[in-house]
Amino acid sequence: MRLNKGDEVKFPTKFGQFRLIPYSEGEKCHMALVAGNPEDGALVRIHSECLTGEALFSLRCDCREQLERSMQIIAEGRNGVLIYLRQEGRGIGLLNKMKAYSLQDKGMDTVEANHQLGFRADERDYSAAVAILKDLGLKKIRLITNNPEKIKGLNGSIEVSERIPIVVQPNGHNKRYLDAKREKMGHEI
Ligand SMILES: [Zn+2]
User: Fold this and answer.
1) 177 touches 60 (CB < 8 A)
2) How remote is the CA of residue 64 from the centroid of ligand 1, in Å?
3) Among 100, 139, 178, 184, which one is most buried in terms of CB atoms within 10 A?
């Protein structure tokens, strides 16, 4: 995994002070938001981008809520890292995500829609996150996630000493999505 590390910048947020370090992988630019001086055992969130949820306030998913809650937990702990990976739509891209939404509007759930389009339920790849954690000198982390599969995605390169769940409130639009994540993808919500 070849990532090019960019210059670190100060990054104040509504949750607290972070430092932002860009790591580019070809055209994509992943971001590491670092609070304090994390060492082994630090709190880490590995978050995949969701334009519709995070920038456009969609209630079809719970991404924005998970992102906000994670930044809050890391800022409160004063030490930790949020890695923001540029893999939209569980890795299928924005346009295919919209196709999957259209199939969901016709009655499929999020997993069935991905399969219909020829994708796996989850196409995400966490090798960039592993490379970023290693660059930051972290070999052992406490991972903020509801998705036990994400721990496997770290390929044993990073030790997860604890999994910290995020409690998400269903909003009336995303219940079916959350049900599919829990029942078909093993998320513990
Ligand atoms: Zn989302």
Assistant:
1) yes
2) 7
3) 100
Q: Determine contact, residues 49/85, Cβ cutoff 8 Å.
A: yes
Tell how far the Cα of 24 is from the centroid of ligand 1, in angstroms.
Answer: 22
Q: Does residue 99 surpass a pLDDT of 90? A: yes
Q: One of 7, 124, 135, 163 is an active-site residue; which one? A: 124
* Beta strands per DSSP E along the chain: 4-5, 9-13, 16-25, 28-35, 42-48, 80-85, 140-144, 159-164
pTM exceeding 0.85 = yes
40 is catalytic: no
Nearest CA-CA partner of 158 in 17, 12, 16, 38: 38
Nearest CA to 152 among 160, 144, 161? 160
Domains defined along the chain, listed by start: 4-87+125-184 (3.40.50.10990), 95-123 (no CATH)
153 CA to centre of ligand 1 in angstroms: 19
59 CA to middle of ligand 1, Å? Answer: 8
pLDDT per position as a tens digit, 19-76? 999 999 999 999 999 999 999 999 999 999 999 999 999 999 999 999 999 999 999 9
